[in-house]
Specification:
mainly alpha; three-stranded parallel sheet; 3 strands; globular
């Protein structure tokens, strides 16, 4: 955990990642995230980090996204810091909604 918190940026290069616990861990430590625009990453990283554009030059796009975060690290760290609180609140709301739909008081 200390290593994640010490990172300048988390780079997720997978094209098949639905979502990843390391993304939530990074957000919990205020670490900005760069990811390819795939599945679950699109929503989470797109809101609190930076998505590299899809294209033939994946390495170049990831590099440019990382450079953008590193050039304005304070702003992206603030986005990451706010991200975990927002995701936790949304998870609680979704769970409460599921309990209500099942007819069980939360």
């Amino acid at each position: 955990q200390r290593r994640i918190g010490a990172a300048a940026v988390l780079l997720v290069t997978s094209w098949r990642e639905v979502n990843s616990f390391v993304v939530y861990e990074a957000l919990a430590h205020g670490v900005p995230i760069v990811s390819m625009p795939v599945s679950g990453m699109r929503n989470t990283v797109g809101r609190f980090g930076l998505l590299a554009l899809a294209g033939k030059d994946r390495i170049g796009m990831l590099s440019r996204a990382m450079a953008k975060i590193l050039s304005d690290q304070a702003s992206y760290r603030a986005r990451a810091d706010s991200g975990i609180a927002i995701l936790q609140r949304e998870d609680r709301e979704n769970l409460d909604r599921a309990w209500q739909m099942a007819g069980i008081a939360a």
